Amino acid sequence: MGYTLKTAGNDCGLPYRFLTGGIVTFEVGDKVIYPNHGLGIVERIEEKTILGTTGGFYHLRIVANDTMVLVPVSNVDGVGLRRAICDDEVERLFGLLGDGKIDNHQNWKGRFKDNSDKMRSGSIYEVADVLKSLTFLAKSKSLSFREKRMLDRAKFLIVSEVSEVMRESAPAIEARVEHALELCFTAKARTTTPRATKVVKAAPRAAVAASASPRRTARAS
Fold first, then answer.
1. What CATH topology corresponds to 5-83?
2. What are phi and psi of 71, to 5 degrees?
3. What does the pLDDT look like over 108-117, one tens digit per residue?
4. In this structure, what are the phi and psi dihedrals at residue 41, rounded to the nearest 5 degrees?
5. CB of 73 closer than 8 Å to CB of 59
6. Does the structural domain 87-192 have CATH classification 3.40.50.740?
7. Which neighbouring-strand residues pair with 38?
């Protein structure tokens, strides 16, 4: 079912290879992340012919809405399919969320393009950048409908993946995310607030003249 040819030494964990091309890097039951869709489970791996082209396909069940998605084995890198992050990467993620560094374009078109590219990348760290920048922006202005939807999507993708990895409830992870973002904005404010400078006022001219006149009188005597 699916794998028609094995690579040498596959019993040691090397990937399967289809006769028609493509190397299987995931196994049935693996938890993977499909960009902009979130967490998926590999249900089947099989060879199919679609529109006259035969190749290997992953059957992914998207956890969020229980839908099935077919991903060509040969195009895993192209669509950004990856494994879910591990425990160590979760700590790195929260460190990134709270580091006080925020990319924020003033130009709407440039900002939306950059954020869209990050969302399509499949990287949870790129999605974290989108979450930080749009949440920060929303504190000072109303987001457009498209940016508001992107913000909600970014938060959902992070919360759902971390919740699955840590085996904690989504509300608990969302609270951690919100706390990390508050730390981020506090650190951002600390670095952008201008330092107060001490201003020394000049003495009034009349006072200066009064203090100087006794000296001139003394010289005259």
1. Thrombin, subunit H (2.40.10)
2. -120, 120
3. 888 999 999 9
4. -115, 130
5. no
6. no
7. 34
